[in-house]
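check these tokens.
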Amino acid sequence: MSRDARRDLLFVLIGALLVGGGLLIGILMFGGGDSVATGSAEATTASSPPSSDPGSASTSSSPTSSSSSTTVGSSTASSGATSSSSPADQTGPVISRAQSSEPGVWEVGTYAACSANPQTTQVVVDVSDPSGIDAVELTWTLDSQGQTLVMTRGADGAYWASIGPFAAATLPSGASMPVTAEVYARDGLGNEVRDLFFPFFWVNDCSDQDGPQIQLLQSTESDLWENANYGGCPTNPQTAQISAVVSDPSGLASVDLELRIGDLGWSAQMAEIAEHVYSVEIGPFHEDTLAIGGGTAIISVSVIATDSLGNGRRDTSDTLVVLHDCAI
């Protein structure tokens, strides 16, 4: 081959190489460039070591979003953990009201002064707690006595209990004493509270403060004569039996009879001759009891009774008996 022919062949080969190389570059740039770039980026991301340079954070923008999501989850979990681990209700119930239906009650008694007055009282308490109420109790004390009561929840949500009646002679005679009340409440978590109320209400003595009952005071004779053997005296009654029905719920200590004629006076103890019936004989009266020619005089008859508590009563009659003079 001649020299010129070899030169022309070389130029053709060079041109073919240039054209092929251009096509390859075009293919790489426009056909698979994304894959290559992505792969390169992934390789760069994967192979690049963590950088302390804040500017390099841009290479991990996608992980930052994922981390934010994790942080939210973590925050949610943390928030939930905080909610479950935060202190639960540690406060006892709230007692907002405690009152007695009666400001005072009386001991049990059979006489009007006591039976006409209240002998029991209803205690009402308002208790609330967000964890619910597990128990409410009331403890009352009166002097050295006391009692704990379990309170019952009513339809209105309040808790109530009844106190009384108090037995007779709970208090000294004539006394009135205050009652102290302590309300105890426990919620569903075991938190407790106690509240003291004093004085809560009063208890009044209802022991027998009345004197004995004296009824049917009578005499077997309405007219008596002095004790003398002249005139009409020996043939007329000189003595009489005075009787009365006397009773007291506390029992009787004494029943006496007192007589008066003007400035003169006599007394005698009456005897119980039947249940609640007391009697004593009066007379005879000395012949000088009345002035000579004095005619007649009213005998004032009084029954004086005292019960076992020291309460007394007197019943007097000026119409039972008349005494006659026995002068000739």
